[in-house]
Design a protein that fits this description.
By secondary structure, the protein is of the alpha+beta class. It has 7 helices and 5 strands; from the N terminus they run ααααβαββαβαβ. It has a 5-stranded mixed β-sheet, with helices on both faces. Strand 4, helix 7 (about 225-235) and strand 5 (about 245) form a beta-alpha-beta unit.
Length: about 250
């Protein structure tokens, strides 16, 4: 073998060592990278430093895999007569690349889901005293008919409306931001249109363009659920000021 061939073979062996070194580095980094990706859970809270580390490690890994593939291509081409690529090393590198991508994808999906949830406006809580009273009433009287009323408007108008409602012993009024809630226990009204007209006439006089409302008729305790009250609030979005909707 000529001196030139010896030098070329040494170059080829050097490239092979570099390739093995790159793969070894990626193997060393993978365990910590996998752990960071798998424990990432935005709902439990997380450190921005961890997110940065995951992204930087994956970026480094992608660059190293590109370097390894370039070395492979060089060895297979110019130096194929001097060095035989280790097929086991090749398989290991391919599997490692897949594992990196799989774990990073898991991290991305969790992060994307968290970002989508943050973009969705959170529904504000219902007045706790109202809920507590509602459950107490129907625990004591499961078949009691009742009306639940929810009004939205400016503070001054809601205060005037509150003054117009006479509460009985088992009734309650509770306020939330921009809202006024009533539970009128023992009240039954079969005709929705008559009930609506009566409420508008009694409660909305002088407030027609400032307040709107929704009323839920309950006939038994099974209907007195928190989700039913949330549905009332959502239903108000489609109602114009001065109107009352009977559910």
């Amino acid at each position: 073998m000529s001196l030139q061939e010896i030098n070329i073979k040494r170059q080829a062996q050097g490239l092979e060592r570099n390739l093995k070194g790159v793969v070894h580095l990626l193997e060393e980094k993978y365990g910590e990278f996998q752990q960071l990706c798998r424990v990432f859970n935005p709902k439990r809270g997380y450190s921005p430093t961890a997110v940065k580390e995951i992204k930087e490690t994956y970026k480094m890994a992608a660059a190293k895999f590109a370097e390894a593939r370039a070395l492979q291509q060089l060895i297979r081409g110019k130096y194929r007569a001097y060095v035989q690529l280790d097929t086991q090393l090749q398989r290991g590198m391919d599997e490692l690349s897949l594992m990196y991508r799989k774990d990073y994808r898991f991290f991305e999906q969790n992060q994307s889901a968290s970002e989508r949830e943050q973009r969705v406006p959170k529904e504000k809580a219902l007045p706790p005293r109202l809920l507590s009273h509602l459950y107490t009433v129907y625990r004591e009287s499961p078949s009691l008919p009742s009306l639940i009323l929810c009004f939205q408007g400016d503070l001054s108008s809601l205060q005037k409306l509150e003054e117009r409602v006479q509460l009985g012993e088992r009734d309650i009024c509770d306020a939330a931001e921009g809202e006024l809630w009533f539970i009128l226990a023992g009240v039954q009204h079969r005709d929705a249109s008559i009930l609506r007209d009566k409420l508008i006439k009694t409660l909305f006089e002088g407030l027609m363009d400032k307040v709107k409302g929704v009323v839920l008729k309950i006939t038994k305790g099974d209907e007195a659920r928190e989700e039913a009250l949330r549905a009332m609030r959502r239903g108000l979005a489609g109602i114009k000021e001065g109107e009352i909707k009977i559910l």
